[in-house]
Amino acid sequence: MTTSIEHLPTPGARRLAVRVTPDAMRQIRGGSPWLYDGSITSVSHSGAPGDLAVVFDEDRNFAAIGLWDPTSPIRLKVLHRGAPTQIDGGFWRTVLSTALDRRAGLVADDETTAYRIVHGENDGMPGLVVDRYDQTLVVKIYTPAWFPHLGQVLDALVDLLLPVRIVLRLSRGVANGESFGLSDGDTVFGPAPEGPVPFRERDLTMEADVVRGQKTGHFLDQRDNRALVRSMAEGASVLDVFSSTGGFSLAAAAGGAKSVHLIDQSAPALETAKQNLAHNHRLGEVRRCLVHATVGDAFQVLIELGKRGEQFDIVILDPPSFASNQAAVPRALAAYARLTRLGLAVVKPGGTLIQASCSSRVTNDEFVSTVLNAAASAGVDVHVTRRTGHAVDHPIGFEFGSYLKAVYLSVRSVSGALRTNPAR
Prior knowledge:
single chain, Archaeosine Trna-guanine Transglycosylase, Chain: A, domain 4, 3 domains, globular
């Protein structure tokens, strides 16, 4: 059943007038989509989430316009800068059309029917994500500032993409606040899904729980890395750590892996992973691949595998973000280092360790240096064969828009000390 959006608010009739510090003005003109509360020197009046706010420069000229968000330290989400413009249905249609143009190759690819349409700030819509799973769109909002504009955004999505349905996902902070009769997982256009929705990724059939699954139902950002794993998996034994719904394991199996071992703390995610593998039994490679799944804490399971002396040709470490803020970065780097050592302890000499990070506050160089230093301290001789970043549907549109990075290590030799004490 479709949930009504008739109780959504509308933006305030009066636009807020905002003045900012010189440094904040430089950042806005440089493309930053964020204006923090500490950078605001004056505001004309109080506003509700989603009211439109205009930033004026020192000469009282228009500099930018954005969504006001009094619930967040990022007080203004910038939508447009330069010349004045009207924020209305036509504006959203233009922004969405530009985002689709960036993904033209994916849109035209019949073998891939799932991809990100709007990547938040990087596509000019800060705090909002739109993912496509074939004929189902999932809109996820991370700020209540989007509620007054949601109706116009949905109208534009329907006009441009003709979806069967649109499902709304709310971040935890938004779902815990005023949601105007809407709940996380509601269908706001078309018939509600009766279960997981099917889609294809490079001609592999998968499913996503768009109502209750993590994020929007699937981790679309690792598509390119999954394709690389598929290309190198023939005859390999593969360990897929933090496997979630099994995208890497399915890719490896389709590439001819002899076995895949999935590890995740979520039993429902592993059940979905098994379903994703089952959906592709038409492929002999997938039918012949031996599948084993372990529910448990990834660090602890890796320790146990290392103690038992189990080894794999390819080990994939794709953890969730370890750094929710800048203060957490040192702890995150320590966790990455520990994960590297545990992963290396179960890689065969001559095998490959693939380690990824989705922590935006950890830079690419910090991450790779941490991984290499951890390998060196463990006495493991490794060689970097590849470093990867964002796929085309997850563009980087501003200085801090990058978050995904992965490093591929060829393991030349592993010390006996690491084998006997993998938890060190």
